[in-house]
Structure formats: C-alpha cells, structure tokens
Amino acid sequence: MKKTTAWIVLPLFLGGCKLLPTSPSGAQKVESNTKIVAPDQFQPSQRRSHKESISEVAYQLKFRSQQVLDDPSDQKSHLLLASYYARMNKNKEAIKHLEQANLIKPLKEEDQLTLAHLYADSNRLNDAMSIYKRFFKQYPDDWKVKNDIANVYRKQREFSKAQDIAEQLLKENKDNIFAMHTLANIYYDQRKYDLAELTLQRARKLNPKNAETWNQLGLVYAKKAMRDESQRSFLAATEQNPQLIEPKLNLAQNYIEHYDFNNAVKLYKDILEIEPLNLTANYHLGVSSASLGLDEQAEEHFTNILKLDPTNAQAMYAMGIFSQYNVQDGQKAVKYYERFIALSPGLSKRHEVFNHLKFAQKMPPKVAPAPAPDASNAAKSKETGK
C-alpha cells in the first residue's frame, strides 16, 4: 500500500470570475431604466476554438522570450507573452510584458484595462486605480469603470468609499446586477456574510441564470460552513454557464477538500478542455490522480506545469512527493526537492521538505523492471522445444 501523503491544496477563488475587460469606448451605454440580465460580454465563453497543445505553447513561450531578448521593441511578442502568462495566472510576468509593450507604443484601451485588472489582482492597487481614474475622466458616465473603481477601493479596504459607489450605481439602475456583486463582495470582505447573502439573493431573483451570482453565493455559504448549500450553488453556476472556469475550480476544491477525488478529476479535466494553460487545474488534477493511484496521469499533469513554467516551485515539490511516495524513486525525488529548495530562498529549515529529502536520500536506487519477454519468440521456443 502506498504511503498516504498530504498534498498542497489551494484556497477557493474569492474574487469571483475573472472576465476580460471591455473597452468603455466600444461598450454600449446602459440607461438607468434598462434591466441588466447578464449580457454576453460579461459572461463570455472561455472555451477556445483552437486549443494549442502544451508543447506548442511551451515552444511559443521560449521562442517569443528569445524574440524580445533579441529585439526588445517587438511589441507583438510582448503582447503575446502577456496573453499566455495571463492565461496561466502568472500575473507578474504578464504585467511586465504589457508594461514593456506600452513603452514601445501606447496600448489599446482593452489592453490598458487588462493591465489594470492584472494590477488589481496582483495587489498593485494604486497602479490599477491610476488607470481606472484616467478612464473615468474620459468616460465619466461609464458605470463599468465606476464599478472597477469601487472594487479597487474594496481591495484597499476603503469600504465606505467602495460602498458609496456601488450604492450610487444601484440608485442609477436598481437592476445593475454587477453592482450587486460588488456590494456583496464589500460585505464579504468585512465578514458580513448575512448581508452578502441577502444582496446575492436579490441578484438571484433578478436573474436566476447568472452564473457569477451562484458562484458568489457558493463562496458565502462556504464561509458560513453550509457545505451542501455551497456545493449546490457552485453546481448551479456550472450548469448556468458551463464555460466559466472559476465556479468549476471552486466546486472541484470543495470535492478535493472532502476527498472526493473522482468528481474532482472530472471537473479539472473539463477545466483543461476550456483552458489547457490553467496551472491550478493541472496541479490539482495531478494531486487528485495521484490520490487515486493514477500515476501516469498525475505525472503528466505535473510535467505539463514544468513545461509551461520550468521554475514552478510548487510543481517541483509535487514531483518530489510523487517520485518518492508514488513511484518509490528516491533519487528522482532528491533532484526535485533540491530544485524546490533552490527556487525557495529563505525557506525555513523546519519546512517538511527537509524531512522528505532526508528519507529520500536513504532510499535504495530504484531498479528498472525487467523487459517483458517477446511473445512471438516464446511461442517459437515452445514449438521447437527450445
């Protein structure tokens, strides 16, 4: 029996669905008496018509990285690298290339808003606010920009300012479901979970088909330790919009925390059909597969992460654990542990990796299995009596 190992589990996606920003100049104005019912531009399909293989993307990352080294003014390569890194949730790298592209030639509005969203997600809130306020001066009536500003204030924990903007948006349009989401997040961040739930119930009554409302309800119920309601809400979100990733990640997280690895595997596979570059899904699919004894699948997904992100410390550590306890290869485990330690400056000497490393170093070398006998030669030998 294989040793049961505690794998690393990531937290729920508390920020809700990450949607591509819309350029204010190209967006339709929403009149105060217009009922907003989850328009398509806010819940787009994330499934791609052309799904690149991991090897294709790994090649592009390497090729384009060399391109910008050879020619730092290659804006196209910077933008393509930023797109790939954003899809991988490697925000720091995506920001770096968008900033470089902007120095070469001012970014288009949609790319500027993408940069603002990445700043906000990376807690570079002053940088995000600077872009949003610039757009607000240009488009003072655009409610989406106001909503983005409210969310930055929320992340800065200036809840009063954030709430004033969200409530003003709802005065201008009582059916603005996205302002309701922002208001619910403001309550959520202050641990006012009952108020967050009431706000989201109001949004659900307005539009029971909005996947993000259900996703946020799932997060609130999770905080209130209402597991069944949380799971039902995440399921409802995935049913209302099967293409959105975050509700699936949250539901899969719910399964994996309760050791329901079979259902987790199904969801992570579906996520990778939508976005094969999602490193979180690759990691947890590897963890779930390893927990089910599906060693080949587990190794494939950990390896996929390292193809896309060769210095990913989490994947290095996972491969060390996998090599040591799942395939009993101590020498291979030692190599991954040492790489993990090298990639983790300031790592405490009490970190569990040092215990794993100590035992892996004592393991005997793994003996390769003997090759299977050739069936045709065995049959011939039997016939000839040799």
Describe this structure in words.
With 386 residues, this protein is mainly alpha-helical. Helices cover 66% and strands 0% of the residues. The protein is built from 19 helices and no strands. It has helices spanning 54-70, 75-87, 91-104, 109-121, 125-138, 143-155, 159-172, 177-189, 193-206, 211-223, 227-240, 246-257, 261-274, 279-291, 295-308, 313-326, 330-342, 352-362, 375-384. Helix 15 (295-308) packs antiparallel against helix 16 (313-326), helix 16 (313-326) runs antiparallel to helix 17 and helix 17 packs antiparallel against helix 18 (352-362).
How do the strands and helices of this protein lay out in sequence?
Blueprint: H1 54-70, H2 75-87, H3 91-104, H4 109-121, H5 125-138, H6 143-155, H7 159-172, H8 177-189, H9 193-206, H10 211-223, H11 227-240, H12 246-257, H13 261-274, H14 279-291, H15 295-308, H16 313-326, H17 330-342, H18 352-362, H19 375-384
Report low-confidence residues grouped into runs of 5 or more.
1-46
On the 0 to 100 scale, the average pLDDT is 86
Order of helices and strands: HHHHHHHHHHHHHHHHHHH
In percent, how much strand structure appears in the residues? Answer: under 5%
Helix/strand/pairing category: mainly alpha
Assembly type of the chains comes to: single chain
Q: How many beta strands in the DSSP annotation?
A: 0
Shape: globular
Largest sheet: none
Q: Determine the fraction of residues in helical runs and give it as a percent range.
A: 55-70%
Termini, distance in Å?
39 Å
Radius of gyration, CA atoms, in whole angstroms: 25 Å
Summed up, the helix count is 19
